[in-house]
Amino acid sequence: MSAKESKAQEQKPVEAQKVEAITLAEFCSRLSQTDKRVELIGAFHHVEVKAGRIKDSEQAFAARFGAFINKPV
Q1: What is the pTM of this model?
Q2: How far apart are CA 4 and CA 60, in angstroms?
Q3: What percent of the chain has pLDDT over 70?
Q4: What is the pLDDT of residue 46?
């Protein structure tokens, strides 16, 4: 197997794992069902809107929310 063929095979699984994008409002709505810190979720929503991040994967929003709640004031 050549290097070119092995690279093509490595890329196929990544393409097969397409992640569905959701809106920020949908993410915050789902988050509010398990996390009752509504002021924190609202602040996160505001920061994301100001940054222009309205649609992304749930995993990306969750990672940014995790970083957001641990930011120093």
Answers
A1: 0.73
A2: 31
A3: 77
A4: 98
